[in-house]
Automatic annotation (TrEMBL):
It holds the Pfam family LptD. Residues 276-557 form the LptD C-terminal domain. GO terms for biological process: Gram-negative-bacterium-type cell outer membrane assembly; lipopolysaccharide transport. GO terms for cellular component: cell outer membrane; transporter complex. This is LptD C-terminal domain-containing protein. InterPro entries: LipoPS_assembly_LptD, LptD, LptD_C.
Length: 662
């Protein structure tokens, strides 16, 4: 009789999990006692264990109601089907709806989704709902996770996103923020509503609070409006529109306005990308700010951003064929120093390159044409256009291990200049290029040496170009009759590079006083995986004086890494002499401390220091840093920055910066 009930129950469970679409092998069931009728109700009591596929379900009582098509397991229920591992008081599964319900449950539903709830509903392998519970991406092995979310209702898409209603954000199980809603990057369904507020601090502006509001604009677009309150002075507003036009075309438009005192500053940023394939793609990038003061009001401390001369906007498109490339580009430079009217704008620049077309099938002779057209526009001063076309013939031949390449071309340029009339200028320049390259390898039992000599000859016709306008620094082409030689040597041990040596120089026969180019010498040695040494040396080929030294040593240990760099330039235009060093210390599996310093050897004072403490707890990571730079007048610009990235919630950054005298 018992065998009969076991057989009947196995058939029922087979139906259940076959409906789930997950069954890959046999089902086994064990229990202390089984009774009932397969046509109505079946019960299994005591130490119930069900094994199927890669899943195990344990409990004290199992029942199946054939009328409602519901199977229930209760009493210390444990479910394990990697990555799912849950403990609950009872489990209910409907064959009709394929929905599973867990009561008084806790455990993990993915490696980054841990849950504890009064009720948990599994709609599909990816989609879950939880009620009156706590959610965290932190490991649930401890009772007080680093951070968690308490909510009346959760929607979880495993491994991707979550959304909660009437929530409390907890740190070590202590509520610190209460909100009517909170969400991670929901990918299944987007909902209009308030997002998590962001707090920060900006010098001269005090504490700031940003409250974003998210608006769904159909299936392929959304809009985020943000109000920024600055408690010391002013406020800000921003709007960010994101859209998707097709699987290969998308973009976003961002506008940020800051009102401070009697001054208003703003930024407009637009980006659109088109990538249909590797053979057809393009981008639009527009970046305009009201003035340089915007960066100060925004709290920007990046030196390159603050000191940039202009913002750049451009539109690019490229199309590739087997033997041709088309590039189109429009560039607009907006000066931050009120000199935009005198800047040359490329509106547009079009380049077409027809490359390496075989002329005779059995002869390695190819034909190419490189052409470009650019219109240079500006409000003040002359403007005009430039058209270049350069047909060329290339002959390539191998003689043993030596590769030889010969190229003859003619650059034809046509300029049209407008100011107080129109002037047309024509130029033709012959060019010749010859290259010879080889590779020699020598091997022993433990060492392989690769020697790569290369020699080239370049010729550009000498011609008076005083009438050629200078639009972008590439118009005047200097005469050239130059030989360049280089030798690169590699050392390998069991296919692993141990060292690299390279030396290069050139000689220009047209230059009578200083015909030699700069000697460039590079040495890189990696005796093992932990130690790296690099040396770069530039030597004036005519005076034999050193013009630049750049030395670098790095040691990477298991717990600590150290590096040091010495850079010295003897060139008057960029005379520098400084030494930099730093270290990274892995304190434990979570904490890392790093330090770097730059000392000016020319003026004998510290120029720069930075201290950073980083933490990585998997479900969140962050760092706090202190960075200062000293100017020649003795003033110190400093910045203290705290950044926290919460898994599935995003990043938060707080900065404080200032300037002080030494």
């Amino acid at each position: 009789m018992v065998k009969k009930f076991i057989t009947a129950l196995i058939l029922v469970i087979f139906q259940i999990y076959n409906a789930f679409g997950q069954l890959q092998g046999p089902i086994t069931l064990t229990a202390d006692k089984i009774k009932g009728n397969v046509q109505s109700r079946i019960k299994a009591v005591g130490n119930v264990t069900v094994h199927f596929d890669n899943a195990t379900i344990k409990g004290n009582l199992l029942s199946y109601d054939n009328k409602t098509k519901i199977i229930t397991i209760s009493g210390n229920v444990f479910i394990e089907q990697p990555p799912i591992k849950l403990w609950c008081s009872s489990l209910k599964y409907s064959i009709a709806t394929k929905k599973a319900e867990f009561y008084k449950v806790e455990g993990e539903i993915s490696p980054t989704d841990f849950i504890k709830a009064e009720k948990l509903v599994k709609v599909s392998d990816k989609l879950w709902f939880a009620y009156n519970g706590t959610y965290t991406p932190c490991c649930c092995c401890c009772e007080r996770p680093d951070w968690s979310i308490e909510a009346k209702e959760f929607k979880i898409k495993t491994g991707e996103s979550f959304k909660g209603k009437w929530v409390a954000f907890d740190i070590l199980s202590v509520p610190v923020i209460i909100s009517p809603a909170i969400s991670g990057p929901i990918v299944e369904k987007r909902t209009t509503g308030f997002l998590v507020p962001k707090f920060g601090y900006i010098k001269d502006q005090g504490i700031t609070i940003k409250q974003p509001f998210y608006i769904v604009l159909g299936r392929s677009a959304d809009l985020t409006l943000t109000y920024e309150k600055r408690f010391r002075d002013g406020n800000g507003e921003s709007a960010k529109l994101r859209y998707v036009l097709s699987p290969y075309s998308k973009g976003n438009l961002y506008y940020y306005r800051i009102d401070s005192g009697n001054e208003t500053n703003w930024q407009l940023d637009f980006k659109h990308s088109y990538f249909k394939s590797d053979y057809s793609y393009g981008n639009i990038k527009i970046n305009i700010v009201s003035s340089r003061n915007f960066f100060t009001e925004n709290g920007t401390t990046d030196v390159e951003t603050i000191t940039q001369q202009y913002t750049k906007s451009d539109i690019t498109y490229s199309h590739l064929w087997d033997h041709a490339i088309l590039n189109a580009n429009l560039v607009y430079l907006d000066s931050l120093d009120n000199s935009t009217d005198s800047i040359f704008q490329k509106l547009p620049e079009v380049n077409f390159y027809l490359m390496d077309i075989p002329i005779i099938k059995r002869l390695p002779l190819t034909f190419s044409i490189n052409s470009d057209f650019t219109y240079f526009y500006r409000k003040v001063g002359f403007r005009g256009s430039r058209f270049n076309i350069e047909p060329s013939l290339r002959y390539t031949i191998f003689t043993g291990s030596l590769k030889n390449s010969f190229k003859l071309s003619n650059l034809i340029s046509y300029y049209s200049i407008s100011e107080n009339g129109t002037e047309n200028i024509y130029r033709s320049l012959w060019k010749y290029e010859e290259k010879h390259f080889s590779n020699y390898r020598f091997s022993t039992d433990n060492l392989t040496v690769s020697i790569n000599p290369e020699i080239s000859f370049n010729y550009v016709q000498s011609k008076n170009q005083n009438d050629i306008p200078d639009f972008d620094g590439t118009d005047v082409i200097e005469r050239e009759k130059k030989i360049t030689a280089s030798l690169t040597t590699y050392f390998y041990k069991k296919e692993k590079q141990l060292a690299k040596l390279k030396i290069e120089n050139g000689y220009n026969f047209y230059l009578e006083k200083e015909p030699w180019e700069t000697w460039n010498m590079d040495v890189e040695v990696t005796p093992n995986s932990r130690l790296t040494l690099r040396e770069h040396l530039e030597l004036n080929g005519n005076t034999k004086e050193i013009s630049k030294i750049d030395s670098y040593v790095n040691f990477a240990g298991k717990k600590i890494s150290l590096w040091i760099n010495h850079y010295r330039s003897f060139v008057k235009a960029e005379k520098n002499d400084y030494i930099r060093w730093g270290t990274t210390l892995h304190i434990n599996r979570y904490l890392t401390f790093s330090y770097s310093q730059r000392y000016d050897l020319q003026y004998n004072f510290d120029r720069e220091r930075q201290y950073t403490l980083s933490i990585n707890r998997n479900c969140w990571k962050g760092n706090i840093s202190y960075h200062w730079i000293k100017s020649f007048d003795g003033t110190i610009s400093y910045q203290i920055m705290l950044r926290i990235d919460l898994l599935k919630l995003g990043g938060y950054q707080y900065k404080y910066e200032g300037i002080t005298a030494e």
